[in-house]
């Protein structure tokens, strides 16, 4: 048996078969087919087509002859590195003849697949967007929509389609939108407008962007931008707080320099000057008078030493750098309790670990700031300082039984002239990855400082191996 012929099919080809399924005629397709028509005439599909297409076509022909109805079929054939797709129709004709129409649908099928993929991507993109997308006529009638209509416009879908958008937006917004749409259609430029809407006791902010869509319609993207606007306002408040804090810190630094200068001049300086005069005068005295003068001189020098030690401790406590954070905080509480007359309670939990130097200094200075706030404002009789060392963080908690304050004030902007101490503590903790938490009511205020442990070192007295 001879090898089946391989037909170079290109474009639509029409075959005509006789009652015994033999080729009578063909037309269309590649022009070279007409050159081999004589050699093909009288042959059956089984002789002309390769397997398995041969079996597929023969079965379809048999079904058409049996049912007398048209039969469609499709098949793929390799063409070099590509795959071509064909679609055929077998139609019964007069005198037992059959007409077979074969069409190369490769490009059409490819474009259809691309279109479906594009529609799938577009659908996924639209589903992911938080915007309500509206198609509007020039008269602001809603022709189509996609997205959260109920959430953004508080309008059910059945009410939205065909509705006048001016009935669904605030008057100020619709007036600006009515002015914007003709400009957008005429200029093909995108315009944006914003408006606010009172809902459930708060003001919600919306952004509406309008783009041209032909000569008589536009597409409008409506988005709830309330969170973004609140974040922007919060950022602006935070920036203003930081600017005022920088000014306050500059003023505080200058005030501390002035206080230090006064302490050195009026306190320690005066004591040393008096001591020098007393020492000079003692040379001219004798007996009991000289003894009394030397005793007074000794007391004056002791007072100067105490003032020097106190000033040194306030500027840079030796305990913090020599013994560590835990002993320094315990010593700070004891010293302030003795000086200002409140009951100080110290508690500690966790293993003995020391943070890096920056964290040590920050926790010490912040704790001192909190204790001084208690002393200045709370009128507390009892102050409890709890030091907790965890696996990954250190916590210092200051509790007092004073008047208390509103912790919600810590979440807002720092007001002019007040609360910059706590605001400064909060910001400096945040800069090192820490945080400040507060709860307060009359009789109990608790403020917790927490910092992650970075580059820990053994506590003072531990041996490094």
Compose a concise summary of this entry.
By secondary structure, the chain is of the alpha+beta class.
Output the number of helix runs. 13
Identify the CATH architecture of the largest domain.
2-Layer Sandwich
CATH homologous superfamily of the largest domain, by name?
Histidine kinase-like ATPase, C-terminal domain
Using DSSP, what is the number of strands? 17
Describe the fold and architecture.
The chain has four domains: 13-110, PAS domain (Beta-Lactamase, 2-Layer Sandwich), CATH 3.30.450; 129-224, PAS domain (Beta-Lactamase, 2-Layer Sandwich), CATH 3.30.450.20; 240-315; 318-465, Histidine kinase-like ATPase, C-terminal domain (Heat Shock Protein 90, 2-Layer Sandwich), CATH 3.30.565. A five-stranded antiparallel β-sheet has the order 2-1-5-4-3, with helices on both faces. It has a five-stranded antiparallel β-sheet with strand order 7-6-10-9-8, sandwiched between helices. It has a five-stranded mixed β-sheet with strand order 11-13-14-16-15, covered by helices on one side. The chain is α+β, with helices and mostly antiparallel strands and 465 residues long. It is built from 13 helices and 17 strands. The radius of gyration is 45 Å and the shape is elongated. The model is unreliable at 1-9 and 459-465 (pLDDT under 50). The chain is 46% helix and 26% strand.
């Amino acid at each position: 048996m001879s090898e089946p012929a391989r037909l170079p099919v290109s474009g639509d080809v029409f075959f005509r078969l006789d009652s015994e399924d033999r080729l009578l005629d063909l037309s269309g397709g590649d022009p070279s087919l007409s050159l081999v028509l004589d050699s093909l005439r009288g042959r059956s599909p089984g002789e002309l087509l390769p397997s398995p297409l041969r079996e597929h076509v023969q079965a379809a022909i048999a079904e058409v002859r049996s049912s007398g109805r048209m039969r469609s079929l499709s098949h793929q054939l390799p063409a070099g590195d590509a795959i071509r797709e064909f679609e055929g129709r077998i139609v019964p004709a007069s005198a037992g003849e059959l007409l077979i129409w074969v069409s190369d649908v490769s490009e059409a099928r490819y474009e259809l697949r691309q279109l479906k993929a594009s529609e799938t991507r577009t659908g996924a993109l639209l589903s992911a967007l938080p915007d309500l997308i509206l198609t509007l006529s020039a008269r602001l009638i809603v022709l189509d929509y996609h997205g959260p209509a109920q959430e953004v416009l508080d309008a059910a879908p059945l009410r939205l389609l065909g509705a006048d958008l001016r009935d669904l937006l605030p008057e100020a917004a619709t007036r600006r939108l009515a002015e914007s749409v003709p400009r957008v259609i005429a200029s093909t430029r995108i315009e944006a407008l914003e408006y606010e809407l009172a809902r459930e006791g708060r003001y919600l902010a919306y952004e509406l962007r309008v783009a041209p869509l032909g000569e008589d319609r536009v597409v409008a993207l409506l988005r709830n931008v309330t969170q973004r606007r609140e974040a922007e306002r919060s950022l602006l408040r935070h920036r203003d707080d930081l600017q005022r804090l920088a000014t306050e810190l500059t003023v505080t630094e200058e005030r501390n320099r002035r206080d230090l200068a006064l302490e050195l001049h009026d306190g320690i300086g005066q004591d040393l000057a008096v001591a020098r005069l007393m020492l000079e005068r003692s040379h001219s005295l004798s007996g009991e008078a000289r003894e009394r003068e030397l005793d007074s001189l000794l007391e004056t020098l002791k007072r100067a030493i105490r003032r020097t030690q106190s000033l040194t401790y306030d500027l840079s406590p030796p305990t913090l750098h020599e013994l560590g954070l835990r002993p320094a905080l315990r010593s700070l509480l004891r010293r302030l309790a003795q000086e200002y007359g409140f009951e100080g309670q110290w508690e500690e939990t966790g293993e003995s670990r020391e943070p890096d130097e920056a964290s040590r200094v920050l926790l010490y200075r912040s704790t001192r700031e909190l204790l001084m706030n208690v002393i200045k404002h709370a009128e507390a009789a009892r102050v409890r300082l709890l030091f907790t060392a965890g696996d990954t963080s250190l916590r210092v908690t200051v509790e007092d039984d004073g008047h208390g304050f509103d912790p919600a004030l810590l979440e807002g902007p720092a007001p002019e002239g007040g609360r910059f101490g706590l605001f400064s503590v909060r910001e400096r903790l945040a800069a090192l990855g820490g945080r400040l938490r507060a709860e307060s009511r009359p009789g109990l205020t608790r403020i917790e400082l927490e910092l992650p442990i970075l580059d820990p070192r053994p506590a003072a007295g531990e041996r490094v191996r």
